[in-house]
């Protein structure tokens, strides 16, 4: 169970590498305009524009205009800027205001994003450590510590954190002035808070993640499961089996069994505890009120909260911006007949919602893994996906590297991700810049990417279920 | 009795006819009166430095407010009057119709070609009022409450597009018009402005425009409008300007500005100089028509020939001031009168107008100029020449640049001291799919980047909203007069549209309407020597108005990325396939219980046979058991085939 030696050196090197790249890359290196890196929601450039016309929005919408009648003489902008900074002190996470036109120009915004990356990695590592401890504990209860010793036990927390920090996509996104690392940070914060049963932190992360990108709203299911049942564990059935065998053994052999075992297994079968969940609900309402309060302050005299929801969540849900990205929806909605547009909008979003319940039922004993599956599904079907979403779930999947050790197609997936991340910019360049390719080639890489994600989700869920079955079988076989 | 009745009615009819004709005679005199409706027609001809000729037709109709307005008019086009006083079937529609188009001011122009500000002048009254952007431009101010303006505008665009056979109705959608706040000098919120840069202008727009004239093109100056010769020109702009006030009623100005290239008449004597000498022209040679008589309904009908001040100064040098027949040029019929401009700078020479009255005689009035010596001059420029261009490559992003280049027209700078400050107002409307980032505005003065707050005196930005609003930028720049060049740049991203939103020829690109640059400190007014004739000439009155010097920039053609237009079905099927793959395989994984499957397999092994093979084996065994079943089966098959044929 030894961690990766020199973790901190590697992590520091990753951050140093980012900063080095930030300084070394030429200014006209337009990484931020690549659709794989920034989306209409996460592009700093797009967020800056409304700020310049003295209109700010807490969540990024596409270029929100000033009121048509509003006259904004230029001298007003600096004062607005100052007000923004004051508000940023009030809410350290109201980062999107931070990116005013003046701040954007220097490195502050990028440094902020590098720091967010680092914190995300640290939280992933802490989550991994917790998961590993709980796994070790549960396997010991099931008398399966042999399994731990035979199969090499990797420190998945360190592994996942380094996977996040050294993933070339994360690095590119960090220097491409996209705000998605902060969205990722919020998601990870919610998961970590739920894992370590800190309802305020979990609520904070969840509320802000929802506020920033809406899709993490489905993470409420794994968070509640985590708070209620505790960390990932083998299915309760195996504990029950173990229990019954133990009882049988004790009756058969009529030996005074180690009195601890039975009660220990009982303890290991997690019962749903409502108190942290209620705490969580309370804190969610607190943070929600806080966010709405901040939004109403920043919207004072400019618009109403409902307008903000329409322009932000409405923008996400109705796929108004049809600029190409690595998802499927942009081309679909650019081509589909207007008459069917609403129908397909519902179909696409229902595709996310419909699998929530079956997944929650089958994987309720592994809420952390459930969170990973939800993140992967939503980043596949979301309206404006980018590679930043994939970096998050790719590092989360490594948290379960012990459980998913016998997953199929992993080499194929690895090659596929590399191929997509190479082909996608090439096709984009051919279509947009050279004019020799056309939209279909780029769309084809999007299709391939969606297929890869499907395979990843399906295979990981399948092998996780297989792993649980294996555990049960070994429990059965032992007795 | 019946016959008597018929005779009586016939008599009555006669009486009515006689009384009608008498009244029409009486009214015929009244028509030309100041109290009623008036119509004037004028034509201004002007040689241009680049061997072309400007012809500017000016028709003006006025209608004083009267109880009959909108119902009955003598000269004024009823269609236009109803745009303003729509008292048509108000009983049916109610009060709303009365207020339908409460227009205070309206200007509609159809233009083809670009006005050449460098050669044809940039600071004279014609260029500042009649140089228009290509395509259609429409702006109007309304007398209705602010909330109703947008609906009124929409109705107006539909009415005008019906009236002029054009697609002005495309200006109806909120993505195509805007509300400028200070560009037009009027600080009002009830103005709407829209432009269609790609509208093709042709005779189908001219014919309804001519129908508004009382004589159409059957008599008067409008007979000169021979379609092939006017559409052959370099610039063609027909404009309709409508002003209505409670006091003076409606004034309808219809102007047509054409720049033509006169045919070079080969002159053997000057064959060597033919290249340098200006082409001589006359009305008949340019328009291929003869001008015989005026429109009888017109109060005045006259032709003016303008010689610019640079020609006049040359003439003065040669020693013949205002003469029309000299060693340089010959004006062919002798003008009726000479009108001279009064200039604020006495040392400078002024432009001269030669006036001809288009009398009702039947001999054609063929005004023309014959040049005798080669002569080069230049037109008065605006102090800065505005142009606009695109920067960047590829179809993802780019920049719009507007540059103002000093023309070094000494006239303006001589009058000002060194500390003078120039003001320029830039007005730019950008469609929503060109996503301009207004925070990237950069201003360069003499190639040096400036601090925005030093240069911008006032700015108003309305960023575009997808599928709702176009982006509008209005800004007032202040900079020293001695500056050589001013340049603004704005970055933009190109949006992606739904396939139905692309125009028919999508790969050609999209047009961004012309930007408008005005110089509010400069006015293109001319003062003419207090001649009573100028009072009666609406054209000269127009020249004396204080019009701001302005110039329109080029229309920009922005190439856009296009999706594959033939793909909708493929995209739908592919995307849905991937979704089905995801949904199906995920549910399959979740549903699967390997333990049960194993049990099932074991039980199947026991049974060995599935359902269908067992049924098939049963049937075959039964058939084998029955001896006569084979012919029966063949018979049944033949019967069914026959039945099938009969049914079909």
Automatic annotation (TrEMBL), chain A:
Pathway where this protein functions: Glycolipid biosynthesis; glycosylphosphatidylinositol-anchor biosynthesis
Topology within the bilayer: Multi-pass membrane protein
Pfam families hit by this protein: PIG-U (PF06728)
The keyword Cell division belongs to this UniProt entry's keyword annotation: no
Keywords: Endoplasmic reticulum, GPI-anchor biosynthesis, Membrane, Transmembrane, Transmembrane helix
GO cellular component, one term: GPI-anchor transamidase complex
UniProt keyword annotation of Transmembrane helix present: yes
Top-level taxon of the source organism: Eukaryota
Subcellular location: Endoplasmic reticulum membrane
GO biological process, alphabetically ordered: attachment of GPI anchor to protein; GPI anchor biosynthetic process
Spans traversing the lipid bilayer: 6-25, 206-231, 272-293, 313-333, 339-361, 368-387, 407-427, 439-458
Family: Belongs to the PIGU family.
Protein's name according to its UniProt entry: Phosphatidylinositol glycan anchor biosynthesis class U protein
Automatic annotation (TrEMBL), chain B:
Alphabetic keyword roster: Membrane, Signal, Transmembrane, Transmembrane helix
Transmembrane intervals: 569-590, 631-647
Gene Ontology BP terms: attachment of GPI anchor to protein
Keyword Ribonucleoprotein tagged: no
Signal peptide: 1-28
InterPro entries: PIG-T
Any single GO CC term annotated in Swiss-Prot or TrEMBL for this entry: GPI-anchor transamidase complex
Protein name: GPI transamidase component PIG-T
């Amino acid at each position: 169970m030894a961690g990766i030696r020199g973790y901190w050196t590697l992590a520091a090197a990753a951050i140093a590498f980012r900063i080095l790249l930030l300084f070394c890359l030429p200014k006209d290196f337009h990484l931020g305009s690549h659709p794989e890196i920034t989306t209409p929601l996460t592009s700093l450039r797009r967020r800056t524009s409304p700020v310049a016309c003295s209109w700010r929005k807490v969540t990024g919408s596409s270029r929100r205009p000033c009121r048509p009648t509003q006259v904004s003489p230029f001298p007003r902008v600096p004062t607005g800027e100052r007000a923004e900074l004051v508000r940023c002190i009030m809410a350290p996470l109201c980062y999107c205001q931070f990116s005013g036109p003046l701040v954007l120009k220097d490195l502050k915004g990028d440094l902020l994003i590098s720091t967010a990356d680092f914190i995300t990695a640290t939280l992933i590592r802490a989550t991994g450590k917790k998961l590993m401890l709980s796994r070790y504990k549960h396997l010991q209860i099931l008398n399966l510590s042999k399994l731990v010793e035979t199969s090499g036990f990797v420190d998945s927390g360190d592994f996942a954190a380094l996977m996040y920090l050294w993933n070339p996509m994360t690095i590119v996104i960090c220097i491409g002035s996209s705000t998605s690392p902060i969205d990722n940070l919020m998601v990870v914060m919610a998961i970590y808070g739920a894992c370590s049963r800190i309802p305020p932190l979990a609520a904070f992360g969840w509320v802000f993640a929802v506020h920033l990108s809406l899709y993490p709203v489905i993470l409420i299911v794994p968070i509640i499961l985590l708070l209620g049942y505790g960390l990932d564990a083998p299915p309760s059935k195996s504990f029950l089996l173990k229990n019954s065998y133990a009882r049988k053994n004790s009756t058969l052999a009529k030996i005074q069994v180690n009195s601890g075992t039975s009660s220990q297994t009982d303890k290991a079968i997690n019962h749903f505890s409502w108190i942290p969940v209620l705490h969580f609900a309370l804190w969610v309402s607190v943070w929600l009120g806080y966010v709405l309060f901040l939004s109403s302050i920043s919207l004072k005299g400019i618009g109403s909260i409902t307008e903000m929801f329409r322009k932000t969540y409405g923008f996400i849900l109705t796929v108004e911006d049809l600029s190409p990205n690595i998802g499927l929806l942009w081309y679909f909605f650019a081509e589909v007949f207007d008459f069917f547009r609403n129908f397909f909008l519902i179909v696409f979003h229902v595709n996310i919602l419909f699998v929530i319940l079956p997944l929650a039922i089958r994987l309720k004993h592994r809420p952390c893994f459930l969170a990973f599956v939800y993140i992967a599904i939503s980043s596949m079907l979301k309206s404006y996906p980018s590679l930043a979403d994939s970096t998050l779930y790719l590092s989360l999947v490594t948290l379960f590297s012990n459980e998913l050790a016998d997953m199929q197609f992993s080499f194929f997936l690895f090659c596929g991700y590399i191929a997509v991340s190479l082909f996608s910019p090439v096709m984009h360049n051919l279509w947009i810049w050279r004019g020799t390719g056309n939209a279909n080639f780029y769309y084809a890489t999007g299709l391939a990417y969606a297929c890869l994600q499907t395979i990843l989700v399906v295979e990981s869920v399948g092998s996780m279920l297989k792993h649980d079955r294996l555990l049960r079988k070994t429990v059965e076989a032992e007795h | 009795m019946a016959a008597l009745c018929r005779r009586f009615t016939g008599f009555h009819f006669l009486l009515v006819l006689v009384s009608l004709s008498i009244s029409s005679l009486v009214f015929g005199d009244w028509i030309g009166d100041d109290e009623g409706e008036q119509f004037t027609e004028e034509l201004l001809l002007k040689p241009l430095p680049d061997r072309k000729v400007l012809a500017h037709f000016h028709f003006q109709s006025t209608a004083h407010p009267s109880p009959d307005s909108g119902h009955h008019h003598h000269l004024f086009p009823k269609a236009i009057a109803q745009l303003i006083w729509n008292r048509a079937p108000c009983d049916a529609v109610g009060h709303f119709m009365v207020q339908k188009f409460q227009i205070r001011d309206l200007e509609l122009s159809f233009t083809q070609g670009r006005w050449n500000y460098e050669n044809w002048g940039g600071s004279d009254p014609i260029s500042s009022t009649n140089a228009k952007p290509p395509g259609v431009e429409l702006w109007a101010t309304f007398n209705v409450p602010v909330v109703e303006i947008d609906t009124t505008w929409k109705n107006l665009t539909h009415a005008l597009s019906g009236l002029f056979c054009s697609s002005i109705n495309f200006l109806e959608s909120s993505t195509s018009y805007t509300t400028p706040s200070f560009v037009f000098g009027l600080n009002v919120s009830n103005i709407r402005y829209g432009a269609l840069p790609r509208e093709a202008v042709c005779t189908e727009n001219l014919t309804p425009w001519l129908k508004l004239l009382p004589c159409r093109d059957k008599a008067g100056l409008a007979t000169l409008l021979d379609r092939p010769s006017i559409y052959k020109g370099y610039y063609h702009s027909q404009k309709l300007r409508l002003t209505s006030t409670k006091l003076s009623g409606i004034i309808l100005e219809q102007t047509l500005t054409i720049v033509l290239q006169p045919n070079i008449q080969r002159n053997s004597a000057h064959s060597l100089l033919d290249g340098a000498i200006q082409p001589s022209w006359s009305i008949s040679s340019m328009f291929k028509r003869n001008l015989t008589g005026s429109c009888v309904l017109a109060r005045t009908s006259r032709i003016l020939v303008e010689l610019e001040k640079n020609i006049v100064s040359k003439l003065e040098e040669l020693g013949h001031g205002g003469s029309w027949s000299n060693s340089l040029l010959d004006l062919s019929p002798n003008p009726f009168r000479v009108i001279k401009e009064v200039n604020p700078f006495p040392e400078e020479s002024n432009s001269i107008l030669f006036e001809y009255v288009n009398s009702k005689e039947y001999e054609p009035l063929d005004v023309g100029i014959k040049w005798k010596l080669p002569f080069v001059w230049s037109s008065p420029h605006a102090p800065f020449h505005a142009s606009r261009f695109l920067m960047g490559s590829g179809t993802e992003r780019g920049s719009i640049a507007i540059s103002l280049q000093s023309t070094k027209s000494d006239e303006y700078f001589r009058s000002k001291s060194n500390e003078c400050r120039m003001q320029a107002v830039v007005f730019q409307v950008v469609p929503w799919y060109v996503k301009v980032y207004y925070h990237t505005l950069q201003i360069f003065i003499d190639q040096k980047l400036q601090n925005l707050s030093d240069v911008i005196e006032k700015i108003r930005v309305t960023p575009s909203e997808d599928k709702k609003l176009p982006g509008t930028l209005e800004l007032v720049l202040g900079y020293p007069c001695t500056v050589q060049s001013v340049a603004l740049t704005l970055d933009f991203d190109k949006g992606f549209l739904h396939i139905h939103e692309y125009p028919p020829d999508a790969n050609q690109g999209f047009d961004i309407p012309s930007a408008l640059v005005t110089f509010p400190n400069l006015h293109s007014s001319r003062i003419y020597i207090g001649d009573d004739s100028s009072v009666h000439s609406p054209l000269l009155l127009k020249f004396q108005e204080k019009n701001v010097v302005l110039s329109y920039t080029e229309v920009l053609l922005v190439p856009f990325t296009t999706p594959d237009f033939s793909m909708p079905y493929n995209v739908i099927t592919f995307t849905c396939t991937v979704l089905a793959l995801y949904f199906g395989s995920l549910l399959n994984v979740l549903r699967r219980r390997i333990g049960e499957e194993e049990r099932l397999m074991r039980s199947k092994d026991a049974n060995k046979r599935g359902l269908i093979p067992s049924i098939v084996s049963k049937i075959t065994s039964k058939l084998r058991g029955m001896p006569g079943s084979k012919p029966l089966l063949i018979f049944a098959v033949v019967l069914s085939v026959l039945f099938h044929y009969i049914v079909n």
